[in-house]
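Thread: Modeling a multi-component assembly for a lab meeting

Hi all, long-time lurker, first post. My supervisor asked me to bring a structural picture of a complex we are working on to next week's group meeting, and I have zero experience with this. I have the sequence lines for every component (424 residues in total). Could someone generate the structure of the whole assembly? Inputs are pasted exactly as I received them:
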Amino acid sequence: MNPGTVNERVLHFYLAGINNQNFLMRDKETGTWWQQITGKAIYGPLQGAKLELVLSDELTFGEWRTESPNGQVLAPVAKYTKEYEPNWEPEVAKLPVVISFPGTELKSRDVVVGLAIGGVARAYPWETFAKQSPVMDRVNGTPLLLALGPDGKSFRVFVSRIDGRDAEFFLQGDNAADTSAEKKPWTLVDATTASQWNFQGCATTGPAQGKCLDRIPALKDYWFDWRNYHPDTTVFKH
Amino acid sequence: MNTSSLSQHEFRGQPDRSTHDRSTHRRTSRWIWILFFLCALATIGLFFIPALIIRPFRYQAPRALFVAMALRQRAPLGTLIAGVACFVLAFALWRTVGLWRRALLVLTLLLVTLSAVMARQNYFEWMFHPIAGPQFLAQSESKLDPKEMILAVRFASDARAYPISQMAYHHVLNDIVGGVPIAVTY
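Re: Modeling a multi-component assembly
Sure thing. I ran the full set together rather than chain by chain. Output:
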């Protein structure tokens, strides 16, 4: 998700093609070609420009709804409702790929959470991440907390630092996979202050109450696509 | 003698000049054909080369993609100029040729026209229609299943959700949230 502004000029984008299964868009104002994943202008009058990535979330509607009581949802367009595929991910996973990276740890269609801090990229295989969440890691000197949400599908990445000090987090509630009726509510606890933290990264009880962790943008992507645009990426192993 | 020789010369000169004219004419006509086909190739290439390179489920080599974007960028004006030239040249050739060559001219002009029209069409949006004026629902009115995935942004107190099932079809959406213009992509 990129803001449509370059040098204070508002641009409007449209789908214009495909580049190894990552789409190309052009803007109506200048006709420049942009790569979706990077937000970079790769050809045309604005070549070399880059859109600023804004923080966004990939959440379940249920999770978002509880966090955003006044939120608005994009309405389906009646003409195209037949085209909407609620089960999109498994459908796309069956499609062939045109680029692959043999010899790397993952398969082309493996889903990863990808992030880059100061040009240092790391991919977290979804299965590993989901099993081990919360994952504590460090990339380019920044301590990270990767958390799978209470719904077992939403995810967020935070800087695991409280008041400038590195912190470690544990899951207090039961894992999302546990569907028993007496399941405790999902809560993270930090080892330093023993405060409780919610999935929005804010402390709800304890000495840190009211504080919120900084967020890191992360992208859920297929391995082939992430690796293609981050050739030096490392893969999280644990 | 002189007169006769002169007249004889003139007499001989007549067929000479006519042969010369005919061959000049043939040469001119050949040049018009060559120009016609060059214009036709240019028009057709300006559409078909990028269309063939930027195909889904095909590998796009970096240099090929560069060529495709460069041609596509120039195709609207290029196909107009080359296409009009094709029609002018075809008009010049039309009266000098027989049925088969006329058929060839017509077929080529059809391809030229198709290419010029397609160079102005965004057929990717025929497959994945854009949302012209996005409408939003209060979250309480949405009929989405709680398990459905959404993309979400928040600017100050403005929170918006874009269902992935919809974004995976439309791919790009231009929106303004909390005064910030954004392009939502999936």
